[in-house]
Fold:
Amino acid sequence: NAGVTQTPKFQVLKTGQSMTLQCAQDMNHEYMSWYRQDPGMGLRLIHYSVGAGITDQGEVPNGYNVSRSTTEDFPLRLLSAAPSQTSVYFCASSYQGSLAGEQYFGPGTRLTVT
Amino acid sequence: GENVEQHPSTLSVQEGDSAVIKCTYSDSASNYFPWYKQELGKRPQLIIDIRSNVGEKKDQRIAVTLNKTAKHFSLHITETQPEDSAVYFCAASLYNNNDMRFGAGTRLTVKP
Structure:
């Protein structure tokens, strides 16, 4: 199993550009989520999904879109990048329901917006 | 939504000493409380978790306690080792991992 994979590892964008961060998991997990990590602020939830076709907003959703067309993939779209979106982005997945427990995190994407 | 506060932000101990990290949460309906460890440049990994029907859970040198009345939970690491040096995050959620909120993290340094 590859676990949770994220691409790209690093990305530099100019203000106003758009891009999609990719996330995939091969563990058949129903739950997937996106976090951003900034120094001194921990992990903040952007969006999450409890299954294909279902998404919901987390703590800091503004400026980001998600979709969940398959169980495996959960891409995060930045619509118009801003310097405030410079961060490390982590995708995570886990089981739902009675099997829910550990969230497995991807390796992260370091995004810089200039 | 849920709000999780974590203290201290940094903690330095001598090898072999104990370390305690404390978190408080705001929503009394929260029922799942995991702790994650993140080494420098790596992804967070679960080290222990507890659900609201349990007051304490142990796994070798690591233990977590939960006080639902006071809405706080703590991570205890005994006989600390240099490899315990990392950032530790607490978290809370209402149901499983849904809409999970994390504390700001504690940077633990264990001096040999």
About this structure: The interface with chain A takes residues 1, 6, 9, 32, 34, 43-46, 49, 89, 91, 96-105 of chain B (CB under 8 Å). The longest strand of chain B covers residues 19-25. Residues 49 and 83 of chain B are 20 Å apart (CA to CA). Chain B has a mean pLDDT of 94.
